[in-house]
């Protein structure tokens, strides 16, 4: 087993997405609200672009959520709330949104229905294809606008059970940003509560509150008592450093996932806001010539891994073994999807399967077939020490059955490049976190990155595709049963191996916030003396 990784940085799983549901709250500090202050939030490494239509990365999303609104918001209980749209009419294959009056872009331009419709056309245009098209409306659609009435209508070719929520979750970019995408790589041009005013690569973003903003979820604004005038998002690569800064009052918020949680939990002046997440999954590359293109190797890999032990290590004892591919609270379709579907931990069975498939052990203990060694290039994001420990344990357990590993830790930007640009990996250890089950069709089916998609593993599972197509048109309990069957179609073939779930908490000092899904809600930030 080989291991290569740079100095530990602070980034947890890819959390590819997105707004989500769920929520957290640890109460408010007892001091008086601070007026016009600066709220400093530590995140991990600089994620690269914050152009909403070029990325679906978790850290990217947390940053651009400050500057870009959506047509509807989602509350902690999973209900839909008015945001840029104040009302809507929904049919199985059509939704019409009525826009809020008085909404402006940060450059002062009024937001029109035509501007919103242009965004929907932009993300699906083959010349400017965005991953968001599959994460909002994963079926063919058309969009029309009526500026006089202030309405935008999205009509799909086939019925889509999550049309209101899906279309309503597209970040809305204002016309100037859409016309010149390069201008919003590290700046902003949206309708959101804060405007990016400064960017220092690898160090921080500075955002300033927009005067008069009052169109967040349910009319939320950015001028309540304690709302910050300035938000600084700092990139701090070491969790212990962030924990020290929280304890000393140098920063107001940070996400801590590793051993430093113990001392933060023991500090009564800090507040904690839990964010349920998928912590660890083995996501596989099944492209031709890759190790996991062989289904026998996938099944053997699953039998070789003790998910309970990897969970204990990968969550520092704070998580549970995953039993569902959806984690964000409230889970859209709850229930156990893994028991009886995934291979049980059984190294002897893994060895027998690999023997039968013609993989013979060499003198170094690594198997080979037709002169090619059975070695997995396993990548992961660095930052949390428990992630490194979990990946090393996976390497040890795979080696026990003759599967070699090259372990490589990457910063978030390099990690995303490996996934979506080079596809130079056999597997990656991370967690894909999504609000709705339909979003999985983009990650375990559909187009590959070279064709504008998010299917980094070149997964082609006909049963999953067929069941997903049926589930897209369904709703309620019927839809959930179909989604469960679709997910189990992936698990039976081990196209993905869910391992662990846990919390990725925000800690705050002299401050409070609320979370929806994976992210802190910008209009919820408060400062206290």
From TrEMBL:
InterPro entries: Peptide/Ni-bd, SBP_5, SBP_5_dom. It holds the Pfam family SBP_bac_5. One of its GO terms (molecular function) is peptide transmembrane transporter activity. One of its GO terms (biological process) is peptide transport. Residues 1-19 form the signal peptide. Gene3D superfamilies: Dipeptide-binding Protein, Domain 3 (3.10.105.10), Periplasmic binding protein-like II (3.40.190.10). This is Peptide/nickel transport system substrate-binding protein.
């Amino acid at each position: 087993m080989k291991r290569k990784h740079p100095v530990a940085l602070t980034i947890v799983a890819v959390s590819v997405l997105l707004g989500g549901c769920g929520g957290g709250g640890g109460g408010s500090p007892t001091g008086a609200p601070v007026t016009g202050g600066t709220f400093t939030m530590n995140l991990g490494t600089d994620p690269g672009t914050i152009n909403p239509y070029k990325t679906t990365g978790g850290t990217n999303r947390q940053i651009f959520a400050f500057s870009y609104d959506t047509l509807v918001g989602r509350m902690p209980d999973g209900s839909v709330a008015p945001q840029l749209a104040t009302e809507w009419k929904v049919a199985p294959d059509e939704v019409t949104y009525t826009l809020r009056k008085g909404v402006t872009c940060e450059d002062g331009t009024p937001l029109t229905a035509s501007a919103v419709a242009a965004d929907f056309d932009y993300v699906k245009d083959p010349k400017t294809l965005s991953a968001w098209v599959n994460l909002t409306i994963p079926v063919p659609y058309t969009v029309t606008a009526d500026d006089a009435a202030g309405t935008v209508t999205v009509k799909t070719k086939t019925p889509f059970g999550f049309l209101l929520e899906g279309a309503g979750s597209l970040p809305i970019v204002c016309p100037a940003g859409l016309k010149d995408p390069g201008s919003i790589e590290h700046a902003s041009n949206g309708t959101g509560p804060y405007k990016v005013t400064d960017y220092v690569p690898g160090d921080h973003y500075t955002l300033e509150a927009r005067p008069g903003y009052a169109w967040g979820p349910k009319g939320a604004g950015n001028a309540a008592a304690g709302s910050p005038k300035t938000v600084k998002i700092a990139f701090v690569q070491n969790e212990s450093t962030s924990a020290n800064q929280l304890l000393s009052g140098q920063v107001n918020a940070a996400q801590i996932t590793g051993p430093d949680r113990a001392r933060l939990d023991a500090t009564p002046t800090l507040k904690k806001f839990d964010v349920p997440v998928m912590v660890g999954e083995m996501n596989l590359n099944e492209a031709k010539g890759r190790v996991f293109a062989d289904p026998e190797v996938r099944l053997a890999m699953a039998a070789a891994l003790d998910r309970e032990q990897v969970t204990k290590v990968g969550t520092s004892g704070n998580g549970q073994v995953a039993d569902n591919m959806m984690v964000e609270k409230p889970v859209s379709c709850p229930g156990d999807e893994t028991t009886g579907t995934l291979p049980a931990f059984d190294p002897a069975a893994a060895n027998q399967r690999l023997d039968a498939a013609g993989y013979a052990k060499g003198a170094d203990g690594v198997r080979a077939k037709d002169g090619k060694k059975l070695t997995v290039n396993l990548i992961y994001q660095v930052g949390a020490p428990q992630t490194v420990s979990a990946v090393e344990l996976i390497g040890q357990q795979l080696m026990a059955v003759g599967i070699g590993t090259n372990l490589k830790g990457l910063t978030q930007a390099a990690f995303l490049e490996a996934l979506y640009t080079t596809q130079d990996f056999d597997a990656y250890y991370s967690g894909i976190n999504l609000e709705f089950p339909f979003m999985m069709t983009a990650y375990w089916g559909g187009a590959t990155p070279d064709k504008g998609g998010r299917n980094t593993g070149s997964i082609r599972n006909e049963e999953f595709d067929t069941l997903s197509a049926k589930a897209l048109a369904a709703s309620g309990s019927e839809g959930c049963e179909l989604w469960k069957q679709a997910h189990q179609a992936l698990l039976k073939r081990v196209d993905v191996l869910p391992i662990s779930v846990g919390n990725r908490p925000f800690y705050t000092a002299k401050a409070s916030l609320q979370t929806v899904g994976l992210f802190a809600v910008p209009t919820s930030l408060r400062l206290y003396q």
